[in-house]
Specification:
166 residues, mainly alpha, two-stranded antiparallel sheet, 6 helices, 2 strands, 61% helix, 2% strand
Length: 166
């Protein structure tokens, strides 16, 4: 048992208790969208040619990878695990985390959107809204509550200084 920045006792084994690991949520949504594309095909609503969709989708994927890798590197440098099922050891607020509190999830959304666009999958793109709701309330809200319990005023100050997404 350790203490948070306010001196309150904190269970070092406590975690955020998210509903599922986010990479699996994103992967499941992509697979579900692609299956629905096969079973219930819809016209792709975004105008443009195949190469344009592929180029823009690839750019989104590359940008998402860049954000996610920057976030993961920040966690590694701070000596805290990326995995939400492990206890957080440090409040990471520098680097990319000084611009967005969730660079890894933002990166995953860019990758997800890039896949939907490159694959010209209307279902993958439509599932973005329910996926965003699940990530926001089943993952991010739980992580934020956990970080506030764990780091107290330091996290509250960070939360007020840095936007959640952009």
């Amino acid at each position: 048992m350790g203490t948070d920045t306010d001196g309150r006792p904190v269970n070092d084994a406590e975690t955020a208790g998210v509903i599922a690991r986010p990479p699996f949520l994103f992967l499941g949504a992509v697979l579900l969208g692609l299956v629905w594309d096969f079973l219930l095909p819809l016209p792709f609503p975004v105008p443009g040619s195949d190469p344009v969709h592929w180029i823009i989708g690839s750019a989104l994927i590359l940008g998402g990878l860049t954000l996610a890798v920057a976030g993961i590197r920040n966690f590694s440098r701070a000596g805290t695990p990326v995995e939400g099922y492990k206890p957080t050891r440090a409040l990471v607020s520098a680097g990319i985390h000084g611009r967005t509190r969730n660079p890894i999830y933002l990166g995953m959304f860019l990758i997800y959107g890039g896949i939907g666009l490159a694959a010209q999958s209307p279902w993958v793109l439509m599932i973005t809204v329910p996926l965003a709701i699940i990530i926001r309330y089943g993952v991010v809200a739980r992580e934020e509550a956990y970080l506030e319990r764990r780091f107290g005023d330091a996290y509250r100050d960070y939360r007020h200084r840095v936007r959640r997404w952009l």
